[in-house]
From TrEMBL:
Pfam families in alphabetical order: PAP2
SUPFAM superfamilies from the UniProt entry: Acid phosphatase/Vanadium-dependent haloperoxidase
Domain Phosphatidic acid phosphatase type 2/haloperoxidase, residue spans: 92-200
Protein origin, superkingdom: Bacteria
InterPro entries recorded: PAP2/HPO, PAP2/HPO_sf
Gene3D superfamilies the UniProt entry points to: Phosphatidic acid phosphatase type 2/haloperoxidase
Protein name (record): PA-phosphatase
UniProt entry keywords in alphabetical sequence: Membrane, Transmembrane, Transmembrane helix
Length: 295
């Protein structure tokens, strides 16, 4: 019993650290992308780059984004809760639902509560005000993470890859459609990451004494693949966007195709990489949060 309690204690500490780190990362993204003139300029350049090849992707992008609605979110939440209940996990069903609701409510509160100074960079969207974090990206990521929590261990890794891919695609789609700046999607994924850590703490509190944590359920290889791939994508994003700094005196509308494409592709990599890292952290810890039970 002492060993089990100690293991749960270290898991709780790890989850608190994850929540704090991801919350701090959110603050950094917000301060740099919204309250720094250079950050707003880079965001605008990346968003301007969505015109490259837009005619060919308009259809798929519209289908992805239009499929996300309040009704579809409620339906997805109901399905996720049903999966948990079918497995006899009442606390898991409640926690997964709280994760989805909490992340999406938090995003809406932040979007309308945070301020965005006008540096005269993105005049076309100045009237819209703050758009960080993205509601569509939050919907996709929260559903993906909650699904990984409730899935049986045999298909959990597959669900993590599919869910991360879906959420990353939705995040990039918001930029491709011109609905959101790239920082909006990255910030949304970090909001979901914080709520995933908080949900993990709740699952630890409700964990029964018959819980059996098995190392075979850890999916270390899959989590490492998602994490390393995500980090590499984030590094690629940083390198691509740093290359643009020398052009900061140029208005986005006056840029040539090459820098616009670098900004757009680099930002897309950053969005996908952020989701990969968030999902990797969830997958690495879920076997301790949703263990096996005897009997």
């Amino acid at each position: 019993m002492r060993v089990r309690a100690r293991a749960r204690g270290w898991t709780a500490v790890w989850l608190v650290v994850l929540a704090v780190v991801q919350a701090l990362a959110f603050l950094v993204v917000w301060r740099v992308a919204v309250h720094a003139e250079l950050g707003q300029w880079i965001d605008t350049v990346a968003l301007t780059g969505n015109r490259i090849g837009q005619d060919r992707i308009d259809g798929p992008v519209d289908r992805i984004l239009n499929a996300m609605s309040v009704v579809s979110l409620l339906a997805a939440t109901a399905v996720i809760g049903f999966i948990a209940l079918m497995r006899g996990r009442i606390a898991l069903a409640v926690t997964a639902t709280l994760l989805i609701v909490g992340a999406n409510v938090t995003t809406q509160l932040l979007k309308y509560g945070l301020t965005r100074p006008d540096f005269g960079i993105d005049m076309e969207r100045a009237y819209a005000g703050n758009s960080l974090p993205s509601g569509h990206a939050t919907v996709a990521a929260s559903v993906a993470v909650a699904l990984v929590l409730v899935l049986p261990r045999t298909v959990r890794a597959l669900g993590a890859f599919v869910g991360a891919g879906y959420a990353a695609t939705a995040g990039v789609a918001t930029m491709s459609a011109g609905w959101h700046r790239p920082s909006d999607a990255a910030a949304a994924f970090l909001v979901v990451g914080v709520w995933a850590a908080l949900a993990g703490l709740l699952l630890l509190v409700t964990q029964r004494e018959r819980a059996q944590v098995e190392s075979a359920d850890a999916h270390r290889l899959a989590a490492a693949a998602l994490g390393v791939g995500g980090l590499l994508a984030v590094v690629a994003c940083a390198l691509a966007l740093s290359w643009l700094v020398d052009l900061r005196g140029t208005a986005p509308d006056e840029m040539t195709r090459r820098p616009l494409f670098v900004a757009y592709a680099g930002s897309a990599a950053g969005i996908a990489g952020t989701m990969g890292v968030v999902m990797a952290l969830v997958l690495a810890a879920v076997h301790r949060l949703v263990p096996r039970y005897q009997g």
